Amino acid sequence: MTETRREQFQALRGMRDILPPESARRRELTKQFFTQCELAGYHEVVPPILEDLGVFLRVGEATDVVTKEMYDFVDKDQSRIALRPEMTAGVVRAFVQHRPVLPWKVWYAGTNFRHERPQKGRYRMFDQLGVEALGVDDADLDVEIIALASRFFASLGLRQVTLLINSLGEHEDREQYTEAVRLYLLAHQYELSEASQVTLELNPLRVLDSKRREDQQIIADAPLVADYLSEDSADHYARVLAGLDSLGVSYTEDPRLVRGLDYYRRTTFEFAAEALDSAQNAIGGGGRYDGLAEAMGGPATDGVGFALGVDRILLACDAEGVFATDPTRLDVFVIDTVSGDAARDITHQLRSAGISADRRFGGGSMKAQMKSADKSGARFAVIIGEDELAANEVTLRPMLGQESDGEQRRVATADLLSELSRYSSQTVTDQIDFQPADSASADPTNSGTLT
Ligand code: AMP
Questions:
Q1: Ligand 1 within 6 A of 283 CB?
Q2: Which residue owns the Cα nearest ligand 1 atom 21?
């Protein structure tokens, strides 16, 4: 006989399977985030993962994210589309399309795709959490979203997160500043790394983002944006800092913080996790933007927002030893050494009453089933053997170390829910209605119920 060997597939490079229990931890992280968002009046927006390529081109034609890393392709109808590399563009496109009432305060949680060189904390498919607030030009809104992010980090137990902040000024301030940086960098062109020489031609400000060693001294002596701020911009920035002071949100001013995307103005900020390696320690960032809604064909609209990277936040939590995975908590493990009918029906009824319940399939001895119950981490085992079945009872056994007042005891099957509800905050009024198959068939009033 010839054996055919089938190819075994692996997830694509830079893409990962998120398995339990890590998946539960990520879900809990998102829950913490949206709790903070909803507390501040932000509601969820869910834009599509695919957009017209043009939506992302508007965001920043000189950025690596758009020029090099985007998963773009020609669709079956010949239109050019792309998997989103970030979420702001899609959210602003949705804003322009639907023209909601202002201010529009939204949060999102979603997957993005960038064809990057994968490494720890940098993947080709990754999740971001973020907020956008459109339609208000008020420094207090900048403070509001920064404080929201900071409460979110605190809710996870993170303590070593630094907020870096800067102001890029208005469009005109930024133009003048960009020109000053361009002239300065041109004078030092040949001392720059090759990559930065290319960036200089496309977008001089982005050279200041370079992490390459040979660029650092030149960057350190470059002109400062603070010297180019108009009075309005300087006032806005001062109010943001005063607001953060008032709320006790600490920050470090970083005059070199420009962030890559072209549409940022005024406030710009980044969160760095000090517990992570400096190359991947950016756990999020954001700022004020204008011109984006206009670029998408809408009215000129102020906007401010941030995006946080889920993977990096979890790495930061690991590094600080906080927000540990909480093992999924199981209330009851049902052990049935008779026919399996009780396990089948009682798990269903427990679950219907909001009590988590599991069992072992394929029967097995009392010992084997007890072992499964131990492994499951359940608070209680509910045991049904021949004896219990005959008496319409179950044995309720608190599992080792779980409940203090607990010797095992027999309880009437019908009283199981109310017995269990003594241990939970839930009020359970239902009764378990389990009858062994024989007695059910003998009792016509029971037909069609859980027997
Ligand atoms: P950005 O949209 O580039 O400003 O990214 C915002 C945040 O998303 C960053 O601070 C990272 O935490 C996260 N992030 C960006 N790119 C990736 C990636 N390729 N893999 C994982 N996280 C990422």
A1: yes
A2: 122
Of all protein residues, the one whose alpha carbon is nearest to atom 17 of ligand 1 is: 122
- Cα dist from 407 to 247, 278, 355, 397, whole Å: 52, 54, 21, 7
Q: Which atom of ligand 1 is nearest to the CA of 271?
A: 10
Distance (Å) from CA 309 to ligand 1 centroid: 5
Q: What is the full per-residue pLDDT of the chain (451 aa) written as tens digits? A: 566 788 899 999 999 999 998 999 999 999 999 999 999 999 999 999 999 999 998 876 656 777 789 999 999 999 999 999 999 999 999 999 999 999 999 999 999 999 999 999 999 999 999 999 999 999 999 999 999 999 999 999 999 999 999 999 988 888 899 899 999 999 999 999 999 999 889 888 888 878 888 899 999 899 998 899 999 999 999 999 999 999 999 999 998 887 656 678 899 999 999 999 887 899 999 999 988 899 899 999 999 999 999 999 999 999 999 999 777 789 999 999 999 999 999 999 999 999 999 999 998 999 999 999 999 999 999 999 999 999 999 999 998 665 555 688 999 999 999 988 877 655 556 777 888 776 544 343 333 323 2
Q: Which of 15, 122, 161, 317 to mutate to test the pocket of ligand 1 (most atoms within 8 A of CB)?
A: 122
* Ligand 1 atom with the shortest distance to the CA of 124: 19
What's the token pair of residue 389? 């079945």
Q: 126 CB under 6 A from ligand 1?
A: yes
What is the C-alpha to C-alpha distance for residues 415 and 393, in angstroms, rounded to an integer? 9
What is the residue type of 94? A
Phi-psi region of 323 (alpha: psi -120 to 50; beta: other; left: phi over 0): left
Residue nearest to atom 15 of ligand 1 (CA): 309
- 6-43 burial, b at 16+ Cβ within 10 Å, e below that, comes to eeeeeeeebeeeeeeeeeebbeebeebbbebbeeeebe
Instruction: Report how far ligand 1's centroid is from the alpha carbon of 112 (Å).
Output: 9
Note if the pTM is more than 0.90.
no
Q: Is 287 in the pocket of ligand 1 (CB under 6 A)?
A: no
3-class secondary structure per residue, 54-90? HHHHCCCCCCHHHHCCCCEEECCCCCEEEECCCCHHH
